[in-house]
Amino acid sequence: MQLTYHPFELELKHPFTIAKFSRTSTPLMLLELKHEGYTGYGEASMVPYMGESQQSAADFLSKVDVSQFKYPFDFVEIIHYLDSIAPGQPAIKAAIDIALHDLEGKLKQQPCWKLLGSDPALMPVTSFTIGIDTPEVLIQKVKEAEACKVIKVKLGRGSDKELISTIRSVTNVPLYVDANQGWTDRQQSLETAYWLQEQGVLLIEQPMLKTDPDSNAWLTERSPIPIIGDESVQRLPDVEKAKGVYHGINVKLMKSAGMYEAHQMILKAKQLGLKILMGCMSETSCATLAAAALAPQCNWADLDGPLLTKNNPFKIPDFEDGKWVLGNDAGLGISH
Ligand code: MG
User: Fold this and answer.
1) In which order are the strands placed within the sheet that holds 248-251?
2) Host H or E run for residue 9
3) What stretches in the chain show pLDDT beneath 50?
4) Domains by residue range for the chain, with CATH
5) For position 171, what pLDDT does the model report?
6) How far, in Å, is the centroid of ligand 1 from the Cα of 149?
7) Ion ligand 1 residues within 5 Å by Cβ
8) CA of 209 to the centre of ligand 1 (A)
9) pLDDT at position 49, please?
10) What pLDDT is attached to residue 19?
């Protein structure tokens, strides 16, 4: 098996502002694993606040011994091996895991979604995320979201009601909101949750600090709409801790260290009665198709990477009725 990789800067169509920061592009590491004439594609998306970089990814990859990956791949062993190289760094671990899943599908001549037990007919619609912006730009972004059946709005900078009212002045589509830990007062959060329900909001992501489970649990107990943990839920052991604190969890491949562990998180969440949102970072078609292979097992999907970026090096997958279409190509279905 042969591993090659190169850094890539994924550019956003608009500067993206959320409660804690703003950016115009996202550093990626794209990789290829070649074996028996097949190529598996992988991707690490390293948004700065997660602490990984193209340098840390390259350092990690320089320590990976590809002779450890023997087909058929034992993903339990593989994640133990990757975790033994260094703690943390879930995005670059995800890149390897995604490439191995793509490769496995190609070697077995089966689509990844089928190997993972997903039913394409159950694919949820994908939301289109709108960052914090001026009313003029917000209205422009709502127009760009026309192909989507749900819009996700970033809140948490103190202008929540104005933002929602601006969006409601131009569209009636259902909304998700993400406060990115930006809410501080319990009672005010609850009042906002009731107001958001009246505005057609279906769920609220990470309202309060991830380090304050008591306040998040307090709100979850009282909120009329589901409260979803995102920043507070990274890998498998965090799923158990989310029970009683949130109604559901946001699973992202770049937090979970890839598809194998994301699948385990989904199964665990179902066992615990937690709902699941399949989310993403700024990603190309590669990581989006990897997440889409698992999305039919989730309640909601927020896989808008290819819709928000402008230099995707891969072909954008088919998108119909607000949903990604899972095809019958072997592997993830990535094409150039
Ligand atoms: Mg979020």
Assistant:
1) 127-130, 150-154, 175-178, 201-205, 227-229, 248-251, 275-278, 300-301
2) strand 2-17
3) none
4) 2-110 (3.30.390.10), 114-324 (3.20.20.120)
5) 96
6) 19
7) 178, 205, 230
8) 12
9) 84
10) 59
